[in-house]
Amino acid sequence: MTSGKNISEDFYLLEKLRQGDEKAFETLYNTYWQSLLNMAIHRIGSREIAREIIQDVFASLWQRRQELTINTSFAAYLHTALKYKVLDYMRSQNVRHKYVNEIKRAVTPFHNATAETIAYQDLSSALHKKISQLPEKCRQVFTLSRLDHYSTKEIADKLHISPKTVENQIGKALRLLRLSMKEFLSALALLFTALF
Q1: Across all residues in the chain, what is the average pLDDT?
Q2: Which of 8, 19, 150, 191 could cross-link 154 (Cys pair, CB 3.0–4.6 Å)?
Q3: Nearest-angstrom CA–CA distance, 95 and 103
């Protein structure tokens, strides 16, 4: 349990952190990283991935230091931040597995005939070309989501935009791609089932 003394010390350090004090940040980091790491390892099972997640939690803390609003204890704030990072990681892993499996199922029939393989490669090439022609922000969000398999929250954090904006940009990208790929519609139906 966090003592009143720790809470007042944390409050002082957070005020210094908001002013960009690196020593205050380092003190908070050294105070809490081990307990957070233990929690992350317990939930994920991998020390290496847990360390990356803890680094993300503290990197986010530093980046958002000037806008921090903490209504609970700092320890409770960190535990909540860790919980969401772990959930994002687990969701992104599930999404990656899902898309890998769906793409494997979609691509398998194309390996049965040379002509179909060529058709698939042409379609894939055309799709990537159309993706490269999307408006910059739209392309960036779509690539992070569908090709790099980032979660909505990860994209929002990375690009400093709201999750709603991320969803809107993905929807816009899909509409533009479907519109610009009309000439491939018959083959595109199968590919979009796998990718989208």
Answers
A1: 76
A2: 150
A3: 12
- HEC sequence for 97-132: HHHHHHHHHHHHHHHHCHHHHHHHHHHHHHHHHHHH
- Which pLDDT score is estimated for 183? 55
125 to 32, 34, 128, 143, 182: CA distances (angstroms)? 48, 47, 5, 15, 15
Q: Cα separation of 154 and 141, whole Å?
A: 10
Largest CA distance in the chain: 73
Those residues whose C-beta lies under 8 Å from the C-beta of residue 38, and which sit 6 or more positions away, are: none
pTM over the 0.90 mark: no
Place of tokens 């929250």: 153
Q: What is d(CA 60, CA 73) in angstroms, rounded to the nearest whole number?
A: 17
